[in-house]
Amino acid sequence: MAKPIKSKLDQFAETLAGMEAEKKTLAEMQAWLKEEGCSVSVSTLSSYLESQRSARLQAKLLGQITSGANQCRAVEKQFAANPSPELETLIKLHRVAVLQLSTQAQADPELLKLVDQLANTAISFASAQTKAAQKERQLALAQQKFEESKKDEQSKALEFCLEEAKAFPEIQELFKAAFAALKKAKGK
């Protein structure tokens, strides 16, 4: 990060910010500065005020990021101590946030976009959860059907072999020997 450049206006920063908040013109600010013994051009004053606004905005944004990070850490700490909420609870909380933003949106119409985005996010999340649960059920059902069909095929094959073996006594003896060998192997 670049080191801030010092300005002869730095000593007047708070007063100038106050004058700016009072909607004083650049000419009025320049005249006041001249009375204070600081001669500066309007363009230099304008650039200085813009850089100060930018610095304040950046500090505010960094503060919001820090606050958000602190809130995330607090939530994660709570989740570590307590189980995370179910989807239904999250949707209820989301609904409360949407309602709060909706009431604030009367003062700030930009919040309506945020309300819409939050609502769409909640709906998308719930839809994705439902689709995932449905896919899971479909996979379980397909697995069950496969296992049943495999058992049916094995049963049919065994029944066919046993029926055919009745006609051939030598085959019956081979089956008996095979089953005896299996029984002996399982016993070990």
Low-confidence regions: none
Reading the helices and strands in chain order gives HHHHHH
Taking the sheet with the most strands, its summary is:
none
Strands, total number:
0
Note the beta-strand portion: under 5%
Overall radius of gyration: 39 Å
Arithmetic mean of pLDDT: 82
Number of helices: 6
Q: What shape does the CA trace take?
A: rod-shaped
- Class computed from helices, strands and strand pairing: mainly alpha
What share of residues is helical? over 70%
First CA to last CA: what distance? Answer: 75 Å
Can you describe this structure?
The chain is mainly alpha-helical. It contains six helices and no strands. Helix 4 packs antiparallel against helix 5 (110-167) and helix 5 (110-167) packs across helix 6 (169-187). It is rod-shaped, with a radius of gyration of 39 Å.
Secondary-structure blueprint:
Layout: H1 13-21, H2 26-35, H3 42-81, H4 87-104, H5 110-167, H6 169-187
Task: For this entry, give a set of tags.
188 residues, 6 helices, mainly alpha
